[in-house]
Structures are given as C-alpha cells and as structure tokens.
Amino acid sequence: MRVFVTGASGWIGSAVTEELLAHGHKVVGLARSDEAAAAVEARGATAHRGSLHDLDSLAAGVAGADGVIHLAFNHDFSDYAGAGRTEHAAVRRMLDTIEGGDRPFLLASGLASGVSSRPVTEDDESPFRGADSMRGGSENLALDHAGRGVRAVALRFAASVHGMGDHGFVARLTEVAKEHGASAYVGDGSTRWPAVHRTDAARLVRLALEKAPAGSRVHAVAEEGLRSRDIAAAIGDHLGLPTVSVAPEDADAHFGWIGRFFGLDIVASNARTRELLGWEPTGPTLFEDIAAGAYAPAELPE
C-alpha cells in the first residue's frame, strides 16, 4: 500500500514509517523543511514537501495515496485554539480529497472524552466538535465521513508515548524537576496518565491501517493509568531528587504549560483494541524507560 503520512519525521511518525516500510508498504511523508525531508528519505520513504497550512500540498499527497495516516499537529500552546482551527481545515481538505474511494484515513487523536467515573473505552465518543473545539474536533470530523466512502479510524494515543529519545510530556516534567531541584506532582498525586511504548504504538497504527473497520476508535494504550505521584517519584528516584506535592493553584507557576495536563485524570482501556487488531504491547514500561535513562542522565549538572 502507498501511504501518505503527515508527521512522518516526528516522534511517533518516524516509528510508524519504519514499521510500515518493514512490512512492505511504501511511505510518502509530508515534510515542511529540508531537515524533515532528509529525515524522511533517510528511512527509505519519499518526502513530499508541504505543511498543514498548505492545503493544496495536503490534497496532492492524499490524491496519490492508497491510504492516509495523519499524525502531524501544530503543538503551539501559545495559540492552541489557532492550532485546532488549522487542524480542522487540514483534515477537512484531506477528507474531501479521499472521499468516495473507500481508502483508509487514520488520524491521531487524544483520550479526552468527558468520562471520569471509569476508564475511557473505544465506544466513548469524543465530545469535541467544530473547528473551535479541542484539536479542531478532528476525530468526529473524520469519523463522520465513515459512511461516505472513507475508512476513517481514530488513533487515540496515550498521554505518554515513551522511549529512548522521547521529547514529550515526561521529558518536560524531567526538565522541570531539574530546574526546581525536586520532582513534583499536583495535589495528592492521585490523577493518572496512560502510557505506551513508541514501538507498540507504531505497530498498532500499522495494524489499524491494514484491518480496522470504518468508524473505529483504537487506543494506543499499554498501561491504562499511572498515578502522577508515581511518575514524579520515578523521575525523582532516577535524578536523585526529592518528590514533592504542588498545590493545584500553584501548578501553572511551577510546571508552566504542562501543568494543565499533568493535573488531568485520564484512564483508558485497551481491551477492545487488542481484540479487534490482535495487538499485544511488548515494549518496556514507562517506569522502565525512566530508570534506563530515556529522559535524563542520573547525574545532574553542577
């Protein structure tokens, strides 16, 4: 299958590209810079120059593909609403291009669903609709096309997609711990985050491309909910720093932009995804990666 992948040079996208190529697929990766294009081509894929703002470039990439995996997102926390509007417009243009051919269209999404009394399941709909909602309401925008000749699938990724070289949420928590001389959590630390190893996430994406039916939501989740105080403790243990609590009203001042996410309680099931795709996570756990030095050397700089 010839697959158009946005975000192909990114943390998840590069692993997905390698997974697809290893299983006989051809990859055309969206690249917005010379550096990104070189990274895509170094893995054996074809670079397609463009960006999420260049809707014509997206349409051209989709038009020549047998399927699409949309992983790119503009993580600009200074204008998150604007990033959502960009996402909505990009997804709509790609869907308009692919519509009617029964080709797969997979897109990255999150696990926020408004559910708080139990783990989020694959049956729980996203509450976000419209360009001004979280991530531009792109999950529902895509799934609404499932009955219009598109095999639309929502890829719901855990808060931490971890591994050696990860520069995401846990990496930022580690930086904050080093800056303050203590590894912190919010309140009583009972809030939880799901996690998945990067290689497991990539394998799930490939399996979803090959066999997930239209309208599916799949959960790239291996560990369903790790307590924030345990995540902080694992970081602190590796760095040799104390673990402390930060009052909720002080979270923004202490953590910066990541404070709003670290205080969220998100627990997600993977049972239906495993049954649907025959997917079994096999990679290291988040705590194993932290202990192995995925985020920081054990010795702090003087």
TrEMBL record:
GO molecular function, one term: aldehyde dehydrogenase (NAD+) activity
InterPro entries: Epimerase_deHydtase (IPR001509), NAD(P)-bd_dom_sf (IPR036291), NAD(P)-dependent_oxidoreduct (IPR051783)
Record Pfam families: Epimerase
Example of a GO cellular component annotation carried by this entry: cytoplasm
Occurrences of domain NAD-dependent epimerase/dehydratase (ranges): 3-214
Annotated segments matching region Disordered: 116-136
Protein name: Nucleoside-diphosphate-sugar epimerase
